[in-house]
Amino acid sequence: MSENQAESSLAMSRSGVARALMVIVLLVCTLTYSVALSGPLFFDDVPNLLANNLVQIDGTEWDDWRVAALSSEAGILLRPVAMMTFALNHVVAGEFSALSLKTTNLVIHLVNGLLVYLFAQALLSSPALRRYQLNPNQQRNLAILAAAIWMLHPIHVSTVLYVIQRMAQLSTLFTLAGLLVFVRYRLRWAEFGAGIGELLSAALWLVLLGLLALLSKENGALLFWLMLVVEVILFRGIWRGHAQRWLIWLGWIAFIMPVLLVVALYLLSPEMLLNRFDGRNFNLYERLLTQGRTLWQYLSWMLVPNVIDMGFFHDDIPVSHSLFSPRTTLFSLLAWAVVVAASLLFHRRYPLIAFAFLFYLVAHSMESTVIPLEMVFEHRNYLPSIGFAVLASVGVFRCVASVERLRLRTAVGGLLGLMTVLLLVRTTAWSDELKLARFNVVNHPQSARANFFYANALYKRFEQATALGLDEEEQRALAVTSRGYFERMHSIDEHAFAATVMLYQLDAKYFPGLAQDNDWLAAIARSLETHRLQSSDTTALRALVDFSLMPQFEAERSRVGYLLEQLGSRYPNSLELLALQYRFVIGAEPTQKARVLPMLERAVKVHPGSRQASSFLAQYHSGDDLTGTYEAMREWLRRDQLRRELPVVREIFNQ
User: 161: closest CA among 298, 281, 42?
Assistant: First the structure.
């Protein structure tokens, strides 16, 4: 055998070993997640999927697919790519089953893991990382390790098993695909340059993948900013073997442009950012201050995956009200300023470290800055963590090389074995709603939401007591324990409507003595005098309205009606409250429904672009006033330019 043949045979053998290792990682990931594939659907899964009739299609009508794709209210672009996959799940399974939905999420996670492997392998060939002098076999092995660290990291459990976060998964999938396309083209251009035809071909692929990422979730738009991170840190303007000054300057100008645009927007029209926080109990400054601490918290979970500190709810993390409240706020912001400055100043000396930090910050820039989202969710790290996964793989390789008697296989095997165990701890908790709820509340006892989630899980079990064959003592224990956790939530946050409403219902139904001692409706009314109504509060108020409409609780119905009137006068332009008032009047006094007609007509005028306002008016006239129904329908369809509500319109006409 010739020398060339021997080298070729050895390369093929090593490539085969690499593929086998990747298959093993995929199998381990699949088995570890499989224990939780029948776990609960909850939180945003309910309104977006279980309560969304438009996405629950049988697939026989072509227009149903269009409506399903546009059926989400999440995001300004409605996320049609993600919603289409949910519709496909429903068509294939005939229902929204946890097993079908979560298995699909797991498959997407595995595909993303393969893309991380390919992306990491391509990055390790970039001009800035050639200093490591890695041969192709080492590059493959490090890329496999990076993908394994990323796939098996317990921080991603809520992204994979919280079904609605398929939106984040798909956005990451298309963003990774776009980055991979860019890096592979860029490697060739760095050596040989490119003609107009190849540049246009690359641009078309990137626009297509960027559009798919954007229509899965809005942070897919970050693909193009992340490409600039790769360009300025790892390629440095190299074209045909030489650094081109014009390309270096163009890359850096484009890189800092998004920051300058946001600053300019704030300086020219600050109300566009400030006024968006009306529905939150924090303002823009408080969010930015808090995110400085939160980003370090995320990073600590990545580097030291403490599954005890992780969880689905993190509302126990305090909001930063100033630079010194809490005291870590100023230190966190200064630390980020040092990190960014060091990454920019020393990116040539430490390119991979600079890349990991800048990739992390840019990938977090949409969900962790000026947009009025909730403060903390672990699934936001699904894309940002990739840079640190690559950094960790190279770090392990270099650390092992510097420690005598430490073998690479032993170190890697121990690391991945530990991560698999930690991942299994979390996936086991996600296998059952009660287990997950208990896991959260034990690890986050000061989280109001964690207490509510556990109390609600216990209450569900109490309601199923007969089917479960529980005796009276067990049933009473469940009811008492459930109430205790609702009360704990109320003590943590006295403005938590969900806890107060549940305490009112529990006491009215099962604890009449406590109902006499606690006037929970009065507590809600007092809270409303000082507390700004949150979007989550309307869900609790809807439960209160439905409870008050039950015949056996008619006695206090008038108090609920008065409460709604007070809220209506305080928030006269709220469509959610208008819907509750309409629901209450129709259920409590259907003969008096004319009382809400002026409110409905006013809502149509106040919200000229709202489909919901017109839909309320159409449903009001339905069956009684044919002329009014047709007029309201016309206005409804005029506002529903995407024709998302056609199935609802057809149903009203059928009635």
Answer: 42
Query: How far apart are alpha carbons 324 and 332 in whole angstroms?
Result: 11
Q: Say if residue 318 is preceded by a cis peptide, omega within 30 of 0.
A: no
For 243, other C-beta atoms within 10 Å of its C-beta total 13
C-alpha span between 181 and 96 (Å, rounded): 34
Handedness of CA 366, 203, 206, 64 (dihedral sign): positive
Q: Please report the pLDDT score of residue 606 as a whole number.
A: 73
Report whether 541 contacts 496 (CB < 8 A): no
pLDDT score at 556: 83
- H helices of 195-283, in order, are 196-214, 223-230, 245-268, 271-274
Asked if 176 and 116 count as a contact pair (C-beta separation under 8 A), the reply is yes
Give me the pLDDT at residue 536, please: 73
Separation of CA 496 from chain center: 22
Helices 80-93 and 98-123 pack at an angle, to 10 degrees, of: 130
Per the DSSP assignment, residues forming a β-bridge with 324 are: none
Provide CB contacts within 8 A for 553, sequence distance 6+: 508, 547
Give the pLDDT confidence score for residue 11 in this predicted structure: 54
CB 122 within 8 A of CB 355: no
Which residues lie below 8 Å from residue 40, measured CB to CB, with a gap of 6+? 98, 430, 432, 433, 436
Best CA proximity match to 42, nearest among 164, 159, 155 = 164
Parts of the chain with a pLDDT under 70? 1-16, 402-406, 591-593, 608-613, 618-641, 645-655
Q: Quote the pLDDT of residue 484.
A: 94
Judge contact between 628 and 590, C-beta under 8 A: no
Return all residues near 648 (Cβ < 8 A) that are at least 6 apart.
Answer: 615
Burial class of residue 520 (count of CB atoms within 10 Å of its CB; 0-12, 13-18, 19+): buried
Placement of tokens 């860029």 in the chain: 186
- Which of 561, 492, 563 lies closest to 533 in space, CA to CA? 563
10 Å Cβ neighbour count for 52? Answer: 18
How many CB atoms sit inside 10 A of residue 509's CB? 14
Q: Are 154 and 425 in contact (CB under 8 A)?
A: yes
Q: How far apart are CA 482 and CA 477, in angstroms?
A: 8
Q: What is the pLDDT of residue 9?
A: 53
Distances from the Cα of 110 to the Cαs of 241, 446, 562, in angstroms?
Answer: 36, 35, 53
Phi and psi at residue 24, to the nearest 5°: -65, -45
Name the region of 508 (left: φ>0; alpha: ψ -120 to 50; beta: rest).
Answer: alpha
How much is the pLDDT for 38?
93
